[in-house]
Amino acid sequence: xxxIKNFYEGFVFVYGCTMLFWYALLAMLSLRGIIRxxxxxxxxxxxxxxxxxxxxxxxxxxxxxNEGVTIISNVRSLLTLNYPVFEVIIxxxxxxxxxxxxxxxxxxxxxxxxAYNERIQSQPVKRVFKSVNTAYDKLVVIDKVNGKSKADAxxxxxNAAAYAYFLCTDVDSIIEKDTLLRMxxxxxxxxxxxxxxxxxPCPECGYVHVVEDSIRVIATGATLRLANSCExxxxxxxxxRPPRHWLPRFQEMEYIRAYVLGKMGWSLINCVPNVSGGxxxxxxxxxxxxxxxxxxxxxxxxxxxxxxxxxxxxxxLKYAVRYIPTSQCWTEGPPNLKxxxxxxxxxxxxxxxxxxxHRKVIFNPRYKRLGLVVLPYNLFFEFLAPIIEFTGILxxxxxxxxxxxxxxxxxxxxxxxxxxxxxxxxxxIWWDQMTYRYYKTWKEVMGLALMAFLEPFVYHPLxxxxxxxxxxxxxxGKKHTxxxxxxxxxxxxxxxxx
Amino acid sequence: xxxxxxxxxxxxxxxRYAPLIIQIACVFIFIAVTCTVxxxxxxxxxxxxxxxxxxxxxxLHPLIDQLLLENVLMNEALIQEDAxxxxxxxxxxxxxxxxxxWARQALIDRLIHxxxxxxxxxxxxxxxxxxxxxxxxxxxKKMKSRKWDKKVQAMAELTSMNMSIADVTILPLxxxxxxxxxAAARHAYIKLSKNEPFKFFDLATEPLxxxxxxxxxxxxxxxxxxxxxxxxxxxxxxxNKSIISFCLKLVVHYNQISAVPAVEKLLDTRDHYLRADAxxxxxxxxxxxxxxxxxxxxxxxxxxxxxxxxxxxxxxSSGKHVDFxxxxxxxxxxFELRKNAAKSLIKNQWAAKNLINELVDTATAENKxxxxxxxxxxxxx
Lengths: 498, 381
Known about the structure:
The complex is a heterodimer. By secondary structure, chain A is of the alpha/beta class. Chain A has one domain (1-55, 183-480). Chain A contains 14 helices and 15 strands. Chain A has a 10-stranded mixed sheet, with helices on both faces. In chain A, strands 12-11-15 form a 3-stranded mixed sheet, with no helix packed on it. In chain A, strands 8-9 form a two-stranded antiparallel ribbon. Chain A is globular, with a radius of gyration of 24 Å. Chain B is mainly α. Chain B contains 20 helices and no strands. In chain B, helix 17 (322-331) runs antiparallel to helix 18. In chain B, 33% of the residues are buried. Chains A and B meet through helix 1, helix 5, helix 11 and helix 12 of A and helix 1, helix 2, helix 6, helix 8 and helix 10 of B.
């Protein structure tokens, strides 16, 4: 018994120290990444791309399921993105409301015979529509059988995409107008495609066989933020505010920490674990070769990035997944505990799934950073964290009951962990403020930063609980439906009556 | 009342003899508190500074605008034909506020902003003002800075004001290891070099990134009075593949027929990416003479080159190789090849109308769908 106790205490100590070390390292890396990005982009005029005939084409894919209330304004918003060569593919995933009818009427759509190439499996596509109005010639609407997941609809969109890159987003998110201009840049900042000759000339074709020898950016992500209390006018954010309600406000803080501090840090060492499903720009060729989205996965965004990376490594190709620190996408976060619990339980389940599906990659030196850094980090500090925290609380209770606790020392250790977590969150908000001063007043920033003091008592226990629930559902194989989040709608700018 | 002080005193007393972990934890508590306080202060100070800067600029910009309007933009004397001889009222700008560095920088930025939005004699007058106020010296000072971002800023300013920079200063920077500096130097060199704006193509060993190509392309295609050379010289002799690839795009843009033989030679290169770029270039220039050679090569090519060959058949639309396109459309196993063959067949419709009708009637369901897709004017790709 004593041995088990000592082992557990030692393990938790090493685990905790490593976790804190990683957070500190990520904070430093992200700071470096942000400063570098700022300096590099301070003289860059992204608008030069708008007129350029050299701009690569991008297909914007937005699945829609029962979005009848907001679909028209959202599609209009997507059609006005600032980029020279793009198409918008709306995938109507078997909506049971009037989503499709509204699209047909509003955009003067007509059914066309479309050469749909099912390179990735998805539920059958019933019809494809194009507009007879040239003002909407960028729009393609796909009507398909409901696949019960966003991934399935996205796969159908990828199959229909005409361009070499595709941007995956949610139709109800608000995307900044310059999103495509900013997100394509990391793809174009790597060296042009370079080859390396391998072996002697081939007796069949006469050429020396070649392999690609340049770093290929396979995906780019950008920061997502909550639009819950922002003012929106015609699909454009006109006033940024942290959410007023406590739950979305905690989420905003968490998003800033995850994107600005986490993913920017990982991006610097090319270890980005996933590109958010809300906004991600992908290399279509690699995404298709990796099998596209897994329509049965609960964490399809992390799954596709992991599979794309695995594909690249298996084929001995150099790759990079990049992140940019600017906020390009605004989404509505779960406004109440019920929806929030469903989302986080799904995320927990998805993470458990990823760890199981890709278990052969974890600690496999063949997969380099992916196998030795990205997935082990996610295994220990994302997947196991709720379990260790929960067992830690139980152990604490046991020590209290058996009167084996040294209160002064325990207080110091708790205080240390608490203040460290507050520090990390505050640094994330500082880094975010360095990127761009999104909030208008200092009170709004302070209001957000001070949530860090409450997080360990209010928000964090919820996260742990829902993650554990997700793991439990995964183990027992409970059926889980995606559920449809009832949108509250984005705040409109108040207009005073004349 | 005394519980807390007693508790902390006992903690401090015990700390001396506490285990190492506890002592380390205490150090980290101190670090965490300090960093948190610094973060809060930095956020507040940063916002305050930003707010002050915005306020100062909000006051200064109208002043600069007014001075520029009165003395340059709305100055009727300057619109005369011999305006270049009329002295500018630079004295109006000799105000105490412009002794401060930030204000002078704001003036430079504003001048650049106006110069980018006006042309002809007004643009020249803004340039003269920039020189008379000795703002060019500020930019040149930045050019000597050790910091790469200052150098980039200086080059952007000097380029916008069309000031010359010595080749010896700028040419080494066009091959810098720093991507941003390298790109800025290349842009500046193209724009400012009077004799040989493309000289750095000879010297460039570092790659020309796709983003840089976009920027260079814009500069080359929008700069007035730039002498466009024959890009064949780099297509033939450059060892830098990114330069060759960029030159192919320029050949298309300027429709340089004289460069076609050099592009044709690239069809034998071992780099299939470059080969595909060359075929793309020939297709966009509608060079019908290469069709036969490409058809001979077709079967030994990788997919990207095969697609470009099929596209070329459509762009050239000579009507000579409809049988080849039909063959590919009917028998290729790759969907993309069939789709591109169909597209090119449709573009050769003038010579293959009967064939297309026959294919629509007899093709498999999937091939028929591909054909109808390509025939529909609403679908572009």
